């Protein structure tokens, strides 16, 4: 069995108030990394001006005071400019977001075993937590 270097990867576009995420979001992300639930591979910040102009800032281009020394990135550049622009189409004027490329580290071993046994994931769908909670609250 060949061990995969990475498990499944997801690309997320997350919005937040202001021009950068708050400390609590960074802490929660760091907790997931420390617990080896995810590996943060790439991180890019985007904002759309009130006029509709898109600004893309990669982590290594952040001003020194905004650097994120506590977050190690595994594969800078994994999210290409085209990917980021496509995701940012949803970003309303006057808002900011981050594009996170995360490996689902918890699934790495399972993916290796699945591939070695000739299996494959035929379909995968992620349902956002807000939707799951709203449906369960409505049913309860």
What does this structure look like?
This protein has helices spanning 23-34, 81-88, 108-116, 129-139, and strands at 9-16, 39-48, 54-58, 95-103. The protein has 140 residues and is α+β, with helices and mostly antiparallel strands. It has one domain (9-139). The mean pLDDT is 85. Pfam families: DUF6325. This is DUF1269 domain-containing protein.
**Record field, number of beta strands:** 4
Number of domains: 1
Structural class estimated from helices and strands = alpha+beta
Distance between the termini: 45 Å
Please, what is the average pLDDT?
85
Beta-strand share of residues: 15-25%
The major pleated sheet works out as:
4 strands, antiparallel
Number of helices: 4
Instruction: Tell me the helix content.
Output: 25-40%
| Series of secondary-structure elements, N-terminal to C-terminal | EHEEHEHH
What Rg do the Cα atoms give? 17 Å
Uncertain segments? none
Shape: globular
- Describe the strand arrangement of the main beta sheet, using strand numbers: 1-4-2-3
Key structural traits:
29% helix; 140 residues; DUF1269 domain-containing protein; DUF6325; 4 strands; alpha+beta
What does this entry show, briefly?
The protein has helices at 23-34, 81-88, 108-116, 129-139, and strands spanning 9-16, 39-48, 54-58, 95-103. With 140 residues, the chain is an alpha+beta fold. The chain has one domain (9-139).
């Amino acid at each position: 069995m060949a061990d995969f270097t990475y498990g499944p990867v997801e690309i997320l576009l997350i919005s937040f108030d202001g021009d950068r995420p708050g400390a609590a979001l960074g802490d929660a992300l760091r907790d997931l990394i420390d617990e080896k639930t995810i590996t943060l591979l790439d991180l890019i910040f985007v904002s759309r001006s009130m006029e509709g102009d898109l600004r893309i800032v990669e982590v290594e281009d952040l001003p020194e005071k905004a650097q994120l020394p506590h977050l190690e990135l595994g594969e800078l550049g994994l999210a290409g400019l085209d990917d980021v622009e496509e995701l940012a189409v949803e970003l309303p004027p006057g808002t900011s977001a981050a594009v996170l490329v995360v490996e689902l580290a918890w699934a790495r071993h399972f993916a290796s075993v699945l591939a070695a046994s000739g299996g494959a994931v035929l379909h995968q769908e992620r349902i956002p937590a807000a939707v799951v909670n709203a449906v369960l609250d409505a049913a309860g």
